[in-house]
Amino acid sequence: MSSKDERNLTQVVEKISKMDEPRRSLMQQVHEIIVTAAPMLKPRIWYGMPAYATSASTPALVTLRNDDRLNLAITEKAAFRAAGGVDGELMPAAWFFETVDEATAQRIAEIVRSVVD
């Protein structure tokens, strides 16, 4: 890991550590899911949010938001595919969560992997 990647990771971990509980624990859990599911993505701060990109100099593909609700989002820089089925041509890009159970963790990992496939 390059020194810039290490600094960026430190910034993301610090950003998450400053959140109030229980959000801090949830965001830490989602951060771990993301870096495990797609180890090629590099954590960084993107517009003040924890985010994940293919390198320190490329736009973020996935972001975590700590607003009124916790949010996992795919940025407009990721390749999108229509959802199909009942969602037709809609392209899902954001998911709110309040807890992370096993099924949610698996879905987060699938979403993140789909961004880098």
UniProtKB/TrEMBL annotation:
Domain of life according to the entry: Bacteria
Protein name: DUF1801 domain-containing protein
